[in-house]
Each structure stands twice: as structure tokens, then as C-alpha cells.
Amino acid sequence: MKRGINVAIQRLPGYYRYFDKLHSMEIQGVSSAALSKKIGISPSLVRKDICQFGGFGQTAYGYNVKEVRAKLGHILGVDNLRCAVMIGTGCMGHALLRYVRFDAAGFIVVAAEKVSGQTGREISGIPVLNVSELDRVIQIHRPDIAILTPSDIPVQTMARQLAKMGIRGFWNFSGEELALDEPDCFVENVDLVESLLQLSYRIAPGGEAIK
Amino acid sequence: MKRGINVAIQRLPGYYRYFDKLHSMEIQGVSSAALSKKIGISPSLVRKDICQFGGFGQTAYGYNVKEVRAKLGHILGVDNLRCAVMIGTGCMGHALLRYVRFDAAGFIVVAAEKVSGQTGREISGIPVLNVSELDRVIQIHRPDIAILTPSDIPVQTMARQLAKMGIRGFWNFSGEELALDEPDCFVENVDLVESLLQLSYRIAPGGEAIK
């Protein structure tokens, strides 16, 4: 759950992902009714959201997919290639490097782990550097985001150290909840159990009523 | 994004996770002000949510953590041990089996993959069965949920087959979006790029204004 974020902004990445998919399927226009069905809110709220994102007009084919996708991508910074550094390349790190399309979010990734005597190692084409040289890695690559996966360094310690080095965004898969007091730092704790509970509720007796 | 679910219900797993954490820390009461800060909505909306979940009274110490946790856990079905079957035990499957605390969501897991000649194999204590015997596996374990990880079986084909066998919940990590028309089936597509974009927006210039 996000703290105090405008709800339309919370929906923005979902809109972008949908427009991006339509764009890759060469679909040119989409109606607010179709968007409403996809996003799960009323067509009038869709129109309000889209207005808040930049006020795009609708033609007979609905919203112009190419135009809206480009504008939402710009707001999200997808068109501005940035770097993310992954800390730890254990089981979870490996899975993320293999299955998350970081390029679709406008990120290139470098990974750092405790490696000894191994240089030039790569996972899915991503260079793996030594965590003891984190200072140098960050100076070279200037990442905006750190991806924290389970590693033998406590997540709170690691995040504080990275924040001091100028990293502001923390995508936390460590399994430990992370809270940072640094005013310009933002944390996205990924809680998969919460997602599973959501599904669990929907299949429970009575849960389907709220489909 | 969930389709048309009541927003309080969307927040329910987050509340449960927080009350569960407080309970494990042996904290007995929590105020709506503290909940408000944690969940990121106003204290009055917190009171409205809690009322919708069952209407708990507040004492001088706020809500009774033990009581609310038990009630929310019951609504979510956490107190009723169920089974989930994981399809595919590649890199992502392994990571989920190692790092997701399924027991915290009230699930035991069995895994199925294309194994040949290997029986009795386990990952993190979870038995790995042969996907060719899925029928038998499902008859024995009667899972409520399938966890779909990337495997060489197309996710749509696999999900339809599982739905026919009576599985109603699909937690989809395959990377392919899954949509099912079966009226009683529910899909939770986990889109990690959407989560990354959310963080990316917050660290973008101007994004912090909506912290």
C-alpha cells in the first residue's frame, strides 16, 4: 500500500501498461468504456483520470493510443533511460533479472553481490559486480533505484548506506519491511503475501460477490 | 489492478498484514491515527473501513489487535488451511517457494513440474510432483489456488485445464497476462513492472510532491 498517494496516480502505471500493450498490438484508439472494463472503475472516473494525466480528447475511435501512451510514458520517465542497481543475486535476484522486463520501465540494471575472484560474470546479460565496490559502482552508473533482494546484509543497513550515496528509490524484495526517514527517499515494499490474500479472499465463500 | 472490487476490500489484506505484524510484536492496541499513517488514508476512512470489516470498538488503547487480527484473518480464510499447487519450478518458482511465507496466508503448497524419473524431490520442504500426473495431484490435494510460474506450457492452456479440474484462483507470475471467462474463476496477474513504474514516478522530478 502506498502512503497518501493520489489514487489516480496509483492507477497511472496500470494505464501506461495497458496503453503500451495496445500500442504493441498496433491498436490506434480505445474508448473510455473499454478502459473502464480493464482498469475496473467507472467510465466517468476513467475520463477524470485521463483528464488529470493531461486532458486528451476522444475521437470516434476513443483515445489516441500512441499519443496517450507517449504522454503517460513521459510522466513516468520511461522515455528517459535510467539505471537501477540490484543488491544480492540469490534466488529472488536471479528470478527478477530473468523475468522482469526492466527495459519496459526504462531501466538498465547492474547487479552487485558478494563475489570473490569472479569478474565479468553476467546473469541474463546483466553484469554482476562486487558489493564491496559499491561506492565505485554507484559513481560509475549513478543509479536512481536500488532493488533490494534477500542477501546477508540487513536491508535497513544497506538502504541507509545507499541513501547516503544518493539513491532515492528502493524496490524492496528482501522480505523485511523497510522504512526510511530520509525526506527524499521512497520505498516500494513488495508484499506478495498481500497479493495472495487478495486472491484468497475472492475465492472464499461470499468473496465472489465482490467480483 | 483489480476489476471492480470494493476499495475497502482491496485494503483488507494490508490491514490484516499490519495487525498480524503488531500481534507478533505483542502490541495490544492500535489507534485509527496510527493505522491511518500506515495505510495512507485518513483516520475517518480507516474507521469506515474497520466498520465495514465488522465494526470493532475502540478502547483507550485503540483497536484490540488480537480481536481485529482474528476477525480479518477469518474473513480472508487464513485460519482455514488450504492448498495451492505451483505449476513450474524454474527460477521464479524456486524464488517464490523460498521467499513467500505461504503459511502466513494460510496455504500449504505442492509443486508440479516436468520431472522424469525423479520422485520425492523437494524444494524448501515442498514436494515436487510430476506435471503429467496433475489430475492425480489435484484429486489428492484438492488445491484452491494455482500458482502459475513461467514454464513451457502456455499459461492460458494450463489455466483452462486447471479450471476444468475445479481450481478457481490463479496467481499468475508467468509474465503473460491471463484472462479467464469461467464465471467462478479469479485471476491475480502479478505485474512487477507496474510496481517499478510506481516507484519510478515517485522519484521523478515533481513526483515527490505527491508523497
Characterization of this structure:
The structure is a homodimer. Mean pLDDT of chain A is about 85; it is low at about 1-5. The first copy, chain A, is about 40% helix and about 20% strand. In chain A, about 40% of the residues are buried. In chain A, helix 1 (about 5-25) packs across helix 4 (about 65-75). Chain A has about 210 residues and is α/β, with parallel strands linked by helices. Chain A starts with 6 loop residues before the first helix and ends in an 8-residue tail after the last helix. The first copy, chain A, is globular. In chain A, the strands form two sheets. In chain A, strands 6-7-5-4-8-9-10 form a seven-stranded mixed beta sheet. Chain A has a three-stranded antiparallel beta sheet with strand order 1-3-2. Chains A and B meet through helix 1, helix 2, helix 5, strand 9 and helix 8 of A and helix 1, helix 5, strand 9 and helix 8 of B.
Secondary-structure element pattern of chain A, one letter each: HEHHEEHEHEEEHEHEEH
Number of separate strands of chain A: 10
Q: Helix coverage percent of residues of chain A?
A: 40-55%
Biggest sheet descriptor of chain A:
7 strands, mixed
- Proportion of strand residues of chain A: 15-25%
Measured between the Cα atoms of the first and last residue of chain A, the distance is 20 Å
- Please tell me the overall pLDDT of chain A: 86
Q: What does the overall shape of chain A look like? A: globular
- Oligomeric status of the shown chains? homodimer
Radius of gyration of chain A, in Å, reads 20 Å
How many distinct helices of chain A?
Answer: 8
Chain pair forming the biggest interface: A-B, 70 and 69 residues
Low-confidence blocks of residues of chain A: 1-5
Structural class of chain A: alpha/beta
Strand order of the largest sheet of chain A: 6-7-5-4-8-9-10
